[in-house]
Amino acid sequence: MSNTKKRAGASDQGAPSPAAKLRKTEENNVHENSLEALRKLSVVVADTGDFESLKKYLPQDATTNPSLLLKAASMPQYAHLMDKAIEDAKKVHAKSEVNSARLEEVIDQLFVAFGVEILKIVPGVVSTEVSAALSFDVDASVAKARKLIQMYAERGIEKERVLIKLATTWEGCEAAKILEKEGIHCNMTLLFSFAQAVAAAEARATLISPFAGRILDWYKKNYPERQAEFVGDKDPGVQTVKRIYNYYKKHNYPTTVMAASFRNIGEIIALAGCDKVTVAPALLEELKSQTAPVPRALSPEAAGHSALADSQKNSLKVEREAAKAHSKSEDVNGAQSASGDEEKLHLDEKAFRWLLNEDAMATEKLAEGIRSFSKDLITLKNMVREKLVMKGTRA
């Protein structure tokens, strides 16, 4: 037997021991920034229409909306996409006058043009939004979604790489139900409440975007004396996303939860482990520039054992009572279990509208979001109108 002493940290076969592997991991983590750490727990999506930001941060997917595209379309470096959209629209509307149909066509062409360019950069999917003006029209939303998918197909983009964004109204969920059956995948946006999340899951939407930051905005505005409390796990937006995530995982809904509209990196870190997080470039840069640890906050395994906060327990009680009173479904009678887990909830239209009405925050933020996106879309159309006039098109 050899008397030679083994080097510390070496195994019998010469491979690193567990202790050595741990030291190596710790050494590597010293140089890991918070964005890299987050990517190990959640899929990171860029919330931007700016191609340079996409190239810099290399996200898996990208999301767009009228506000982001208005900002991008105003940049000189993207003027060629506006020009191309105008030219492509001529093939559909040959008449020279500027009318609503022609403006709408240019906007559709512009949204798809940005989406196509984004998909040259990101390996995953891009989200393209249906006009907020259609938020309460099932048939028009379905028709617009089909048209956008067809336009992508004509440019060689498979529908699997596109998510159609719909506002999470009752009509939006009904539209998603139809589209998902056709293989057109939907991203339910402007989502602020548990009731909206339940309806989206029941519609079998591919993905939802709960707006953590906008929820926080409402609570800070309406409860200014408590602003200092709304941090980390006590952030109302974080609590809402966690509740939805845990509910989805417990009841095996396939719908992806993509937390959105963050106001600070604390919210992002508090939701590490969420399926996806869509983050603005400024916050991506902040995460990239620091090395603070990013511990896992959410996991499918822990979802069924996550206790509810008192405020959420009260909210759940109200929701169950409302669902019983307003829904014909017999599946709404489940009670909260002793562990604090939430039983499966089914909502019909009456129950959905009642619960949304009873949630002042969600009611206000949904309406505000629809108005804001609609306003930015009108501004974008006015930009298009000016371009058409400058090009000599008869107004």
From TrEMBL:
PROSITE patterns: TRANSALDOLASE_1
InterPro entries membership: Aldolase_TIM (IPR013785), TAL/FSA (IPR001585), Transaldolase_1 (IPR004730), Transaldolase_AS (IPR018225)
The species this protein was found in: Besnoitia besnoiti
SUPFAM superfamilies: Aldolase (SSF51569)
Residues covered by region (Disordered): 1-31, 294-344
Family annotation (Pfam families): TAL_FSA
Gene Ontology molecular function: transaldolase activity
Keywords: Pentose shunt, Schiff base, Transferase
The protein's Enzyme Commission number: 2.2.1.2
Keyword check for Transferase: yes
Pathway: Carbohydrate degradation; pentose phosphate pathway; D-glyceraldehyde 3-phosphate and beta-D-fructose 6-phosphate from D-ribose 5-phosphate and D-xylulose 5-phosphate (non-oxidative stage): step 2/3
Recorded family membership: Belongs to the transaldolase family. Type 1 subfamily.
Enzyme class: transferase
GO BP, one annotated term: pentose-phosphate shunt, non-oxidative branch
Compositional bias segments (type: Basic and acidic residues): 316-331
Gene Ontology CC terms, in alphabetical order: cytoplasm
Protein name: transaldolase
